[in-house]
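Worked example 3 (structure in, sequence out).
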């Protein structure tokens, strides 16, 4: 491989590793902007992955498969909403329980589909543009979900900061009592935000089982849900920085693969822990600046809303 062509497979791998993080991170960002902390991202990713894979295997229709993943994630998020918004359960404990539930139910549903391969999502090719050296395959030869992830990030950014609906959502997250006092349905808005976050995580899971590794395996998310949660803090609740962080963590994730291929004399266990080690380091560095977090974090995040108050 001559010239700069060696960089193409690296960039393509980074993009595939980052895409599920973009979906999950953008979805959780909207959820947290409404004032709700949902730690069940890992479980929603898994449920979305298994729902999409089973649907693709049975029907052969990728559109239905991605839709099934989104619906599965949204349904799990709806259950979270019922417990935390309607029944006022603790959001942290419920989110952790949601992850455990997602791990178990995905393993149960997918037990008969383990190891069955499917064709990966087809790549889109733009005539003429896809043949451009280096940039062509990277920018114009991806599957539809890669472009959808970037589109959703731009759409969420526009919605949050350029529309009345986004202003209302942020108001609910910053002061739910004030939003309620002027007539907005805090619970209703939060239900929509939570279910949107679940749907995005479901699509991220669908990407894992249909494109990243087109097969089903238990716990195939490998902690990506927790990385997505860390991305929100890293990005200070800004959609654009979520994308930047997702691609950064995606690069760290695939670093282990290229290091092993290059014959680097480092134990594989150390290479495998790099993404999670990077997550811990980033969170430690960010937590040192408490004023930065307080400035950007929704003021009511994780707080239970009592309509009668």
């Amino acid at each position: 491989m001559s010239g700069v062509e060696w960089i193409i497979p690296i960039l393509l791998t980074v993009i595939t590793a980052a895409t599920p993080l973009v979906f999950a991170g953008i979805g959780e960002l909207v959820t947290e902007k409404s004032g709700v902390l949902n730690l069940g991202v890992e479980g929603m990713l898994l449920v979305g992955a298994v729902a999409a894979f089973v649907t693709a295997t049975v029907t052969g229709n990728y559109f239905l498969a991605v839709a099934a993943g989104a619906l599965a994630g949204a349904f799990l998020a709806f259950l979270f909403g019922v417990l935390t918004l309607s029944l006022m359960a603790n959001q942290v404990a419920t989110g952790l329980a949601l992850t455990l539930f997602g791990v178990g139910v995905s393993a149960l549903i997918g037990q008969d589909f383990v190891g069955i391969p499917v064709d990966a999502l087809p790549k889109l090719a733009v005539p003429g543009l896809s043949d451009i050296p280096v940039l062509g395959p990277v920018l114009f030869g991806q599957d539809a979900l890669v472009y959808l992830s970037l589109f959703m990030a731009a759409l969420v950014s526009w919605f949050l900061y350029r529309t009345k609906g986004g202003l209302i959502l942020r108001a609910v997250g910053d002061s739910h009592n004030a939003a309620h006092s002027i007539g907005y349905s805090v619970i209703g808005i939060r239900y929509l935000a939570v279910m949107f976050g679940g749907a995005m995580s479901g699509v991220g899971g669908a990407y894992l089982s249909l494109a990243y590794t087109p097969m089903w395996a238990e716990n195939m998310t490998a902690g990506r849900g927790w990385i997505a949660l860390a991305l929100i803090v890293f990005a200070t609740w800004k959609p654009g920085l979520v994308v930047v962080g997702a691609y950064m963590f995606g690069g760290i994730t695939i670093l282990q693969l290229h290091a092993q291929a290059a014959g680097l004399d480092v134990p594989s266990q150390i290479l495998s822990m790099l993404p999670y080690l990077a997550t811990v380091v980033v969170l430690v560095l960010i937590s040192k600046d408490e004023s930065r977090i307080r400035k950007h974090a929704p003021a009511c995040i994780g707080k239970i809303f009592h309509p009668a108050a």
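Notes: The chain has one domain: 11-296. The two ends are 67 Å apart (CA to CA).
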